[in-house]
Specification:
Chain lengths: 115, 110
């Protein structure tokens, strides 16, 4: 299996631009998570999907952030408009079965720099 | 609110040494994860455990539920083990929330 696939690996953009990060979970996994990692705050959960339905988006920092999961094999995290403080590494992770019992598999991350 | 503390924050070891990284948490949990992150790299899940001990190659993870403490051991350390090791606790049954420690940066010198 190819694992969790994220794109792009690196993104450099200017403040105000729209950013779209993509994730393909492992086939058969029905739980998907988006995390953000910064030096100051470490890893933070942004949003959790189960069976393509957003279960918890309380970690999404502002209305500028949105996430979708149109089908079981694809999810996007969008930031519009982007700001320098959004610079971070964004990780997608998936697990099989109930999120509370399944081991998490992380993607390689998308490193975002907003100038 | 659960808090996860790791120690040490930084660790430098000579190749071949036995390494221990500690993780303490403050409330009851359903599982404890150990993650590995190489510089500039992705995150790899090493272990998920809820009791006892697990072993994978040179890595051993233990958990003491009563003491709310877990350890990650690396035997015969190697420079390729150099990475940040993160422990994360999962809340009670049915919880999907992970509380992450700040990580332990390990450097193994040849």
């Amino acid at each position: 299996d190819a694992g969790v696939i994220q794109s792009p690996r690196h993104e450099v953009t200017e403040m105000g631009q729209e950013v779209t990060l993509r994730c393909k979970p492992i086939s058969g996994h029905n739980s998907l998570f988006w995390y953000r990692q910064t030096m100051m705050r470490g890893l933070e959960l942004l949003i959790y999907f189960n069976n393509n339905v957003p279960i918890d988006d309380s970690g999404m920092p502002e209305d500028r952030f949105s996430a979708k999961m149109p089908n079981a094999s694809f999810s996007t995290l969008k930031i519009q408009p982007s700001e320098p403080r959004d610079s971070a590494v964004y990780f997608c992770a998936s697990s099989i079965g109930l999120a509370s019992t399944g081991e998490l598999f992380f993607g390689e991350g998308s490193r975002l720099t907003v100038l | 609110k659960n808090e996860v503390e790791q120690s040490p924050q930084n660790l430098t070891a000579q190749e071949g040494e036995f390494i221990t990284i500690n993780c303490s948490y403050s409330v009851g949990i359903s599982a404890l994860h150990w993650l590995q992150q190489h510089p500039g790299g992705g995150i790899v899940s090493l272990f998920m455990l809820s009791s006892g001990k697990k072993k994978h190659g040179r890595l051993i993870a233990t958990i003491n539920i009563q003491e709310k403490h877990s350890s990650l051991h690396i035997t015969a350390s190697h420079p390729r083990d150099s990475a940040v090791y993160i422990c994360a606790s999962r809340g009670g049954a049915g919880s999907y929330q992970l509380t992450f420690g700040k990580g332990t940066k390990l450097s193994v010198i040849p």
